[in-house]
User: Fold Calcium homeostasis modulator protein 1 from Triplophysa tibetana.
Amino acid sequence: MDKVRVMLQFLQANQESFMNGICVIMALASAQMYSSFEFTCPCLPDYNYAYGIGILVIPPIWFFLLGFVINNNISVLTEEWKRPVGKRMKDPSVLRYMFSSMTQRALIAPIVWIAVTLMDGNSFLCAYSATTDLSQFLNESHDNLPKKALIRLQATIPCKDVFDGHKIISVDAATVYIRCLSQACGWIFLMVITLSAFLMRAIRPCFTQAAFLKTKYWSHYITIERKLFDETCKEHAKSFARVCIQQYFESISGEIVQQLHLPQKKGKGDKEEDGEKQKTVEEKLLGVRKEEDMNKVLWNWHSCKPPLNIGKRAQEANGHVHSDSSSFSDEYITRTSEKKTPVAYYSKV
Assistant:
C-alpha cells in the first residue's frame, strides 16, 4: 500500500508527465487494437466505401474524445470558460493555450490509428476496390461484361473466398496496386503531420515570448488553484465533520456513552497534546463554522472569485477590495530606499 501511495503522489505531482504517458499508452493501445481487430469487408458496392471509411474515421474520433475525457483539465477549462467574471477578468489567450495543449495530447492516438490503418491497407482496399480504375489489370474477356457487373466484381476483390473472376481480372495485382496507393497516402499523411509539428515548434519562437510565458503561467495557475481549492475544501470538511461529531458525543449523556468512552486518567502531557490537536482542528476551520457560511463561501468562490492581488490591503478585506497597485509599489520603493544604508568594505591587502 505504501508503494501504491507513493506512486499516486508522484503521478499527482507530475501530472503533465502522467498525461503524456497516458497519451502514449493510448497510442500503443490503438495500434494493438487494430492489429487484433478482425477486418471483414462486406464486399458489396453499396457498403464497401461506408465500411472502409468508417473504420478509418470513426475510431480516431472515439480516441480523440477519449483523450479529452481522461484529461482532468477539461473540467478546469470548462469551469474557467463558464464562470462569471466577478472581480477577476478572463483571458481568452489562456483558455486557448489550455485547449490547444489538451488537443495536442488528444490527437496522438487518432494519428497513430490513421497511420497504421493506411499502412496496412485493408480499409483502403475495401473502400476503393469498386471505384478505382483497374483497367490495366483486366483481361480481354472483360469487353462483354457490363459496367455494373464489373463494379460488383471489383467490390469482391478484398474477399478472396468470394471472388470468382480470376479469368477477368488479376486479383493479386489489383490488391497490391490498391495497397500501394494506401501506403502512399499513409506516408503523405505522416509527412504532413510531421511538417505541421515542425512548423509549430519552429515558428513559436518567432512570436513574443512574453505573451507565451504569460499564458503558460496563468494556465498552470488555474490548474494549481483548482487543485489547492479542492484540497482545502477536503481538509475543511474533514475538520468540520470531526468537530461536529465531537460536539455530538459530548452533548449526549447516558450509559451508552459511558460504556463506549471509559474514563481514563490523563496526565498533563496528554492534556497538552489534546489541546494542541483541538487547536489545529479549529485552525483548519478558518473561521467558517456554519453550514450557511460554508455555502456562502462556495457560492462566492464560484460567482465572484477574489482578484489576483495578495497585497496587505486586499488581505484586510478578505480579498473583496482592490488595492491600488501603483500606491503600493510607491510605498514599497520608499520603504526599501529608507532601509538602504551605505556600507564600505576595506581590504587588508
